[in-house]
Amino acid sequence: MTNLHTNSNLPVLIVGAGQAGATAAAELRKFGCGKQIILCGAETHAPYERPPLSKHVLADQERERDIFIHPASFYEDHGIDLRLGTTVVALNAKEKTAYFKDGSKTEYGSCLIATGGNARVLPELPQSTPGVHYVRTLQNARDLRAALESKTHILVIGGGFLGLEIASSARTSGHEVTLVEAAARLLPRALPAVLSEWLADRARAIGINLRLGVSINAVAVEADGVKLNLSSGTSITAALVIVAVGLHPEVELARNAGLRINHENGGISVGPDCSSSLAGIYAAGDCASQMNPFFGREVRLESWQNANVQAQCAAAAIAGAVQPKNVVPWFWTDQLGWNIQMYGEYDSTLEYVLRGEIPSALEPGKFMLLGGRAGVLRHAIAINAGGDLRQTHPLFERHASCNIAALADHTQPLRKLVAVALNACA
Amino acid sequence: MPWIHIANSDQLQDGDVIAVSIDKQNVALYQDGDSYFATDNVCTHQFALLSDGYFEDGCIECPLHQARFDVRTGKALCAPATTDLRTFPTKREGIKIFLHVE
Questions:
Q1: pLDDT beneath 50, residues of chain B
Q2: CATH architecture for the domain at B3-100
Q3: Inter-chain CB proximity B64 and A332 less than 8 Å
């Protein structure tokens, strides 16, 4: 590993104090980087994890204290110059200079862009609309929590992971919840149909009014709330509307600095070590687009794991350390009281087998769906079965060819079946 | 508190983790080779039973969010966990496994 800047004593500047930025700062110190580290973020809170925002933080203010990525003393203890409530408004890549919002500037040796993204906004419902909420930041979650206290009927637009989590949290705390999703089934790009249907059954069983295959024709802001005219011919009025229709990567700083942007996914194009198209600048997390060895194509991933892994790669490159090894893409979500975890990704051409039994709408249980092609596992989904999912990791890691149907025998422990499969292909 | 008989050696094998409880405390008991280790059974990150997790090379991985802990020391090894697990001394006499709670 060579790094042109290892001799420079100029600071490492991390723009964005979210999961990727805060993790990169810690990883730099672990890799022995002794330079000044500046970590700056637009929000005023110390770096925190976003997954809890749509879950227990929405229900309980007390749980906010559990969400911080590092203990409060971490930054001072590790000599990390944490600058909150500020942003870098411009980068001069040639002169390696960053300009802050307050007019100050700093020279850097290396710069990591970890600006994440913003909630995608529906043009008809800008963030300033009374009664309309988007959930991306801790402040957003606080505002929504306060609004939930006084409103009983809420409308969620978007049946993705975030919209479903919010609907589930609100329903659990006793709200009347309607969820509108344009697709004919829940999460059509992430899950096989059988699981979408199971989730929809569960959502309906706990009392969520699910409106699938329905799009919004017109929006009107009225005195008693927001009125939506739906493609089904009906209309809904709600005093509290939550829009969860995806994320827009925040790449303006990078684009203006001249970094290459992937036009398909909107992310900052980076190499295996997270280096961008310009020397000394790296990108990691939701804003980065990278060739993924497991998927075999360039992707922009919005996951907690990806933010951490790319932060580690960028930190290793900046510190001149050995790159960490590739990981199997892993994702988790907590939906309607169920923990869902996945390796790999959904593809409608995969053949899926079921391990265990799918419980009816309100019954407890655990099960897995294993999706493969030509005997190679490409997607595993575990419902309340994270320990079992982990057993399949070696099969994913080695792209091992095996009899996937044999793994579905739930009278046998999965650990044993995976060992048999690995032996057979060794 | 004295040593408490919590399990017998035929209840688990090398590489296994099982849940045991003492009073109202959830404890995870691990067998690694010929050695037994015990920790709190609840992850320090969020509520999940570590006995449902993945035990390998002396480390337990939480089934919810893949936080890992060294079962010998209880040390939290990776995100999202930052707080160590409580550990308990164990000993084996014949087939009986005992645990010591302070």
A1: none
A2: 3-layer Sandwich (2.102)
A3: yes
